[in-house]
TrEMBL record:
Residues 9-393 form the Major facilitator superfamily (MFS) profile domain. PROSITE patterns: MFS (PS50850). It is a multi-pass membrane protein. It comes from the Bacteria. It is found in: Endomembrane system. GO terms for molecular function: transmembrane transporter activity. InterPro entries: MFS, MFS_dom, MFS_trans_sf, MFS_Transporter. It comes from Marinomonas profundimaris. Keywords: Membrane, Transmembrane, Transmembrane helix, Transport. Belongs to the major facilitator superfamily. It holds the Pfam family MFS_1. This is MFS transporter.
Length: 393
């Protein structure tokens, strides 16, 4: 029997995931103005993303120790304050180096929030709510570009002010966590889910798991997938405004649509996975990502760019959660715990490195070549999925 506060905590957890998604897409909107002010190359957006990823890895790897030491309530309070501090730091940054340092601070806070909420939800909330929590992240990632674009259009392209608005929202979220921290701690003694198949996961070492061929392919799959999802979200605004003559308002709106379709798609596919083969849905969605990347890359008209973004967002929606859920089926239960850990690490690494690589390509060969990298990643992703299915059988 769960305590009465679990419903309240669930609501707060949803708010937490929404707030977690707010800053993620903001860089893609603000970057043209940030790089102009700091006089840095276009491709250096990758350094900002890499800084956030380094901070994320630092905190997420140590979240187990932090939870045992401070409890989930205080962890969420401090982590939200770190994100808010980093966003305020963007406002006051006088150089690009300082800007990147504050990106690391934001990454540290985001990693602890993400890992802390996921660890708590996995123990106390149902699988259905776990899926919807990740959809809530998409809601935040959708709202972020809308907020930042509105500030840019309304306040003479003041990119610093957009970060301040997000910082205030995260500070309010930190206060929500602060005043609800006793609810989190009082609920921690609720009955926990049984540790199923524990004997299977403990007899396999990490080295043994890494020798599994399907696990290796899935590590590469998550590396590529996160690179596509994050890369498109971060670079689409720059590509559309600087090489295709699309207005700031239109480009910002359609980047928001991209993230919005990601959230909407997770809601839709949450119902479809119960009625259709998961692998068939994944195959269709990966083909849709390739088609969307093709439309966005060729961009015969601005509407082709818009359609490509929307299609990529919608078709990307179920890929990450469905691939995670199918891990035990593909590699076996005794390998699954290690495999999921490798996949999450690969996803963060891909999100840090592939957008940076795309930026380097764009800086050297032009923004058209930058968008072409998304198509290449999508094609490789589709082929890799077919290889995973073949080897898993």
């Amino acid at each position: 029997m769960r305590v009465r506060t679990s419903g309240v905590l669930l609501f707060i957890a949803y708010l937490g995931f929404i707030s977690l998604g707010l800053p993620d897409a903001a860089h893609g909107i603000n970057w043209p103005f940030v790089r102009t002010e700091f006089a840095v190359p276009t491709g250096w957006l990758g350094l900002v993303i890499a800084g956030g990823g380094i901070g994320y890895l630092m905190s997420s790897f140590s979240v187990g120790y932090l939870l045992s030491r401070f409890g989930v309530g205080w962890l969420l309070v401090v982590s939200s304050l770190l994100v808010s501090l980093g966003l305020f730091g963007f406002y006051f940054s006088a150089s690009f180096i300082v800007f990147v340092l504050f990106a690391i601070v934001i990454g540290m806070g985001s990693g602890a929030i993400d890992a802390g909420l996921n660890a708590y939800a996995a123990e106390h909330f149902s699988t259905k709510h776990m899926n919807w929590l990740h959809a809530a992240f998409g809601v935040g990632a959708t709202a972020g570009p809308i907020i930042v674009t509105t500030v840019l259009v309304s306040f003479s392209q003041n990119w610093r002010l957009g970060y301040v608005v997000l910082a205030v929202i995260l500070f309010v979220m930190a206060m929500v966590f602060l005043f609800s921290r006793h609810l989190w701690e009082s609920d921690k003694h609720a009955p926990k889910k049984p540790a199923e198949h524990l004997e299977d996961t403990t007899i396999v070492s990490q080295r043994q798991a890494l020798k599994h061929p399907v696990i290796r392919f899935q590590i590469l799959f998550f590396f590529l997938y996160s690179g596509v999802e994050v890369g498109v979200g971060q670079w689409a605004f720059t590509v559309m405004t600087e090489s295709r003559g699309i207005s700031l308002a239109s480009a910002g709106t359609w980047v928001a649509v991209y993230w919005g379709m990601l959230a909407f798609g997770r809601a839709v596919f949450g119902f479809l996975v119960e009625r259709f083969s998961v692998d068939q849905l994944l195959r269709l969605c990966l083909a849709g990502v390739v088609l969307g990347a093709l439309f966005f890359t060729t961009s015969v008209t601005p509407y082709a760019s818009y359609f490509g973004l929307a299609l990529m967002g919608f078709c990307s929606a179920p890929i990450f959660p469905c691939m995670i859920s199918q891990t035990a089926t593909r590699v076996g239960k005794k390998y699954s715990a290690h495999a999921v850990g490798f996949q999450m690490s690969a996803a963060v690494t891909g999100a840090m490195t592939l957008p940076f690589l795309s930026g380097l390509v764009g800086g050297h060969y032009g923004l058209t070549s930058l968008s072409l990298t998304f198509l290449l990643y999508a094609i490789l992703l589709f082929g890799l999925f077919q290889l995973i299915l073949t080897r898993a059988k």
